[in-house]
Amino acid sequence: MNTKFQFLTRSSFLHFLVVISLASISIFYSCTEEASLLGADLIPENDKIGYIYDDTTLSFSSYLVNQTRFYSKNYSTYYLGLVNSTYYGSTEGRIASQFEPVNYVWVYDSAVIDSIVLFLQVDTTFGIKDINFPINIYELDSAISEDPIYYSDYNMDNMYSIANKLNTGYRIQGDTLLAFPLDIDIANRIAADSSAHKDDSLFLDTFKGISIIPENVLTNGGQLFNVNISNAQTKLVIYYNDTLSFPYYLNKGERFGTYKNNPENSILQAFMENDSTEIDSLLFVQGLGGVTSKLILSNYMDLINKANYSILKAELIMPIFDTGEPEEYPFPDQLYFTHLVADSIYSQIVDASSGKLFDGKLNATDYQYSFDISLYLKSLLNGQSTDSCLVLKIPANTSEANRVILKAGENIKLKVTYSKH
Q1: Percent of the chain whose predicted confidence (pLDDT) is above 70
Q2: Is 224 within 8 Å of 81 (Cβ atoms)?
Q3: Which of 29, 91, 203, 313 is deepest in the core (most CB within 10 A)?
Q4: Every domain of the chain and the residues it spans
């Protein structure tokens, strides 16, 4: 009987522990806002686990930041076009490229030229397609250098003359092709100069390339076409009246693209003209080298001075400011935080670089971005890091046109799960 009693007691005790463990887990994970800890008065003060939405203890300051230029030589894709916005101002994408034939063996010396057309394959479009935002083609009168000297902010105005304009307009052919009929004079000059003994260098001495320039239009709207230079459909084609044609490709030679973000007369400009010490109420994040914002955890030392904390999870939630722009101007799919580690050199925070906890993905339903910054906050509170300044970035900043405006100040929430001891 004693043996049986001991067995039942041991089994009952183990069963009790399992029930208590499951109940504890259920209570812990069911917390969603400021938690009401069931039975908290039964737990010793030093062993309590707190779960809070911390929007009072910690505060954030935000400021605009100019992003650095980037190399733009010989990419496979470039954005081309113009977008105007009340909030951002204008964003313009340009392309300069050489064009060359696959070979110089097969030319039609006896055929009569009918027309010449430049085709650009479009992978995606940022904005609403509108041919009322003109794009012009100019013949280059300066050669593109083989040296990697071209940055995203390079001024190509000195490489062409507006007198050498080659087109009068363009059309959108299907969903993915732009077609620019060109002046037949350049086709006649190309054909007259093409013969079997020519090579690339001799050809480029005569035909240095083309620049593709959007025209300045003040109307809001417009589009940026993501042009795939490497696609076989991107080419300059000479057509003959006997149905023959001969292509020249843009991806054989040198090329580069440039981007100009001009905030003039926009809401963004008003923020940029603020005193540098004035905290911004909105955070702007742009692709293609536009501005971004930095977020400073301004009083985290107060949390250290209050008590000792063990951070279990820290989630930063940043709501989106609604500009009312159409869905054709989409937000970035993801954002991430970086630190400035040297002049113009940024490094991802530990949560983003670990690839395990950090998210930063767009939540289109709740209209916000959320970030797990647990490791970063731990490093601040335990003194491993003293850099409380975070810079927002788009992962594909050099090749993505998407942008977003976020609410700052008290709109930012830090949701912390912690143990206090």
Answers
A1: 80
A2: yes
A3: 91
A4: 40-67+291-420, 77-262
Q: What share of the chain is helix, strand, coil (3-state, %, to 5)?
A: 20, 40, 40
**What is the bridge-based pairing of β-strands 368-372 and 292-297?**
unpaired
Radius of gyration of the chain (CA): 30
Q: What is the pTM of this model?
A: 0.83
295: its two tokens: 């977020």
d(CA 94, CA 153): 10
pLDDT digits (tens, 9 = 90+) for 273-317: 877 677 889 999 999 999 999 999 887 777 665 556 677 788 899
Domain at 40-67+291-420: CATH code: 2.60.120
Q: Which two tokens stand for residue 316?
A: 């930063």
State the residue for tokens 């906050």.
377
Output the six-digit token pair for 371: 């970030």
Token look-up 């089994």 returns 11
- Tell me the two tokens of residue 7: 């067995």
Please report, as a single letter, which amino acid is at residue 229.
I
Neighbours of 263 (CB within 10 A): 23
CA angle 270, 274, 278 (to 5 degrees): 135
What CA dihedral angle connects 108, 110, 111 and 116, to 10 degrees? 60
CB 376 within 8 A of CB 385: yes
Query: C-alpha distances in angstroms, 122 versus 96, 177, 224, 231, 299?
Result: 16, 6, 10, 9, 48
> At 360, phi and psi to the nearest 5?
75, 15
Token pair 């204008």: residue: 90
Which DSSP helix (H) or strand (E) runs through 80? strand 77-85
Percent of the chain with pLDDT over 90: 56
Q: pLDDT digits over 199-257, tens only?
A: 888 899 999 999 999 999 999 999 999 999 999 999 999 999 878 999 999 999 999 99
